[in-house]
Amino acid sequence: xxxxxxxxxxxxxxxxxxxxxxxxxxxxxxxxxxxxxxxxxxxxxxxxxxxxxxxxxxxxxxxxxxxxxxxxxxxxxxxxxxxxxxxxxxxxxxxxxxxxxxxxxxxxxxxxxxxxxxxxxxxxxxxxxxxxxxxxxxxxxxxxxxxxxxxxxxxxxxxxxxxxxxxx
Length: 168
Fold this sequence. Notes:
This protein has about 170 residues and is mainly beta. Helices cover about 10% and strands about 55% of the residues.
């Protein structure tokens, strides 16, 4: 065997070792608060209305057991589209950026099908991070509760769920 063949074999063995595989970081709560700003609204098919929105919020840091949650204290910024009709959210998709005070963080994609306005469940997928979050991934579900305070046109809300985190 040549040195090149031995080096290639060693690289293949290392690449398939569990130490280089995805590392499970566990499941942690993910919650926070937000405000919603309506950007545009346009009628769609029948009684369905398409609404574009912007979310500004922050991520809480309490895991409930004294530990600090991943992304604790981060800012949340989203742009999304909802289809509203028949008193329900017909669909909801948003692209979000979750960032720390230095601008590092990751993208969060949210999506759901038909659900109620006040309590709404969204599939959440985290990835494409920067800096120390470049290899962190997460998936789970978030429940978003929204309300429009009296005298306001801007909905406010809270979100909570559990995300299963991993590092590649």
